[in-house]
Amino acid sequence: MFLDCKPVDKMDTTLVRDGATLALSCAMPGLVGATLRRGGFYAAFREGISCRDDDSDTRAGIGTVRIKLFNLLIGELGPLFLGRGIMVPASSIVEFLQKSSGKFKNSCREVSIDGTPADMAALVDGTPFRDRTSVRLTVLFDKPNEAPEEEL
C-alpha cells in the first residue's frame, strides 16, 4: 500500500487526506518486493521514504481519494469498485469506451451515471455527459469474476 507514493507501514493509524492517491498492489518479487513489504526484514532500507503520521492539519470529513490498483488486484477489486461507483472525468469514459473492445461492453449487465441507468450506445457517443466534467460511473458485470481485466 502506498499513500501519495510513500509505502505505508501503519495502516490502522495513517490518515488519508482529501485529494490523496492510494495505490494498492500485491506482493512484488525480488529485493524491491522485500524492501517495500510492510513490516518486512528489509523495511529499514526505505525508512526515509515511508509514510509518516503528520496530523498537523487534520480534519474529519468527506473527501476524494484517487485509487490505483496494480498487479492481480485489478481483476479482483476492479469490478467491486465499479459496482459501488467511481468518480470519473466524463471525457475519459467516452475515450475509454470508443477504444475498448466489444468484450468489455458486452460483459456489462448494467451501467449508470450518477445513479441513472444509461444506455451503452449513448455513453459511447457522449450523450449523457454534455456540459459535465466528471460523473459517478457504476458498472455491474454479468459475471464479475470474469470481467475483462485487460480493459479495467
Protein architecture, described:
The protein is an alpha+beta fold. 27% of the residues lie in helices and 21% in strands. It has five helices and eight strands. It has helices at residues 30-36, 73-84, 90-99, 102-107, 120-125, and strands spanning 2-3, 6-7, 21-24, 66-69, 86-89, 108-113, 116-117, 134-141. It is globular, with a radius of gyration of 18 Å. It starts with a strand and ends in an 11-residue tail after the last strand. The relative contact order is 0.16. The model has no long low-confidence stretch (mean pLDDT 83).
Helix content: 25-40%
Strand arrangement, largest sheet? 2-1-3-4
Report the structural category. Answer: alpha+beta
Tell me the radius of gyration: 18 Å
Order of helices and strands: EEEHEHEHHEEHE
**Average pLDDT over all residues:** 83
- Number of helical segments? 5
Q: Could you give a short account of the major beta sheet?
A: 4 strands, mixed
Q: What are the SSEs and their pairings?
A:
Elements: E1 2-3, E2 6-7, E3 21-24, H1 30-36, E4 66-69, H2 73-84, E5 86-89, H3 90-99, H4 102-107, E6 108-113, E7 116-117, H5 120-125, E8 134-141
Parallel strand pairs: 3-4
Antiparallel strand pairs: 1-2, 1-3, 5-8, 6-7, 6-8
Summarize the structure.
The chain is an alpha+beta fold and 152 residues long. The chain is built from five helices and eight strands; from the N terminus they run βββαβαβααββαβ. A hairpin with a 2-residue loop joins strand 6 (108-113) and strand 7.
